[in-house]
Write a structure and sequence with these properties.
Elements: E1 13-17, E2 21-26, E3 29-34, E4 39-40, E5 43-44, H1 52-66, E6 75-77, H2 85-88, H3 91-94, E7 98-101, E8 105-106, E9 109-116, H4 119-128, E10 130-131, E11 134-135, E12 145-151, E13 154-155, H5 167-174, H6 176-199, E14 202-213, E15 219-222, E16 231-235, H7 251-259, H8 273-291, H9 295-298
Antiparallel strand pairs: 1-2, 2-3, 3-7, 4-5, 6-7, 8-14, 9-12, 9-13, 9-14, 10-11, 14-15, 14-16
Helix pairs in contact: 1-8, 5-6, 7-8
Length: about 300
């Protein structure tokens, strides 16, 4: 029987409890568990979103497998039968919600790729005519498709908001060779994924990648990948530039919180049942469109 998982409790060493994911260590591996927690404006909300953890994990698993010929990743398996024994003991908490991954040293930058102009990029463009130091054509409308995707990195803030930075700042942080490699890989991954998703009825307007170095110093793709939490997913059938777009992510939650004039400081307000349900349905629909599967049938719920 399905249970909302707000916080996992596994008998292994807890490495990190993020806004959404819990990370454990055992036998030289990491286990990333996607809970049903949801955050908005950098604050974790009191109400979890049913099935959200399953959706995030299973979409990441899908993309890691899809991208296996494009980039090396930290993904090992999501088959609980292949997990270290200590994780198998928490089967109900980890099945379909988790993946076993290789350890890596994360790079100190968020690798953001934008194929459309929206969000913070739209605000920056209106003010300066550029994004992260990249000059863009005049006359762009909100949500317009760019002539080609752009790499717009940001800092990786432990607390507060990330800040957009120029490519040269990335060079300062990690060196030119590695900076060029993550830029080129980020753009290639985005182009491959965007082309696939568009055929399935989803526009990936922008997305965030994270990279790390494995124990051999090799660059690998880590963390989550191309989920509704790390990307802006728009329904292709409703795309209409010149305004904000409907989305498959937590925008519905953010819009509700904006409507009640919350000050965006903890504690966050409770979400109405209608907002929880509609947000849940958005996540499930994103999974169905991308993979062609009904997640609840897969989970036998």
């Amino acid at each position: 029987m399905y249970q909302v998982l707000s916080q996992s409790n596994i008998g292994a060493k807890l490495i990190k409890r993020g806004k959404v994911r819990d990370v454990y260590e055992a036998d030289g591996y990491l286990l990333i568990v996607a809970t049903d927690r949801i955050s908005a404006f950098d604050v974790v909300l009191p109400n979890p979103i049913p099935y959200k953890g399953y959706v995030l994990n299973q979409i990441s698993v899908f993309w890691f497998k899809f991208l296996s010929g494009v980039v090396k990743t930290h993904f090992i398996t999501d088959d609980v039968n292949l997990f270290p024994e200590i994780f198998k003991k928490s089967y109900e908490q980890v099945v379909y919600r988790s993946m076993l991954v290789k350890k890596a040293k994360p790079l100190p930058v968020e690798c953001i790729v934008r194929g459309y102009i929206s969000g913070s990029a739209w605000k920056e463009y209106k003010k300066y005519g550029s994004v992260c130091g990249i000059k863009l054509p005049e006359g762009l409308r909100e949500s317009d498709k760019l002539s080609e995707p752009i790499f717009t990195p940001s800092t990786k803030a432990e607390t507060g908001h990330d800040e957009n930075i120029t490519f040269e700042k990335v060079v300062d942080l990690i060196g030119r060779e590695l900076a060029e490699k993550v830029r080129d890989l980020s753009l290639r991954i985005y182009i491959e994924a965007e082309e696939y998703a568009r055929k399935k009825g989803i526009i990936i307007a922008d997305t965030k990648f994270e990279f790390g170095l494995d124990e051999n110093g090799e660059l690998i793709l880590i963390d989550e990948v191309l989920t509704p939490d790390s990307s802006r997913f728009w329904p292709l059938s409703e795309y209409e530039p010149g305004k904000p777009q409907p989305s498959f992510d937590k925008q519905y939650v953010r819009d509700y919180l904006e409507s009640i004039n919350w000050d965006k400081k903890p504690p966050a307000p409770e979400l109405p049942e209608e907002v929880i349900k509609k947000t849940r349905d958005k996540y499930l629909e994103a999974y169905r469109l991308l993979t062609g599967e009904d997640l609840l049938k897969k989970l036998k719920i």
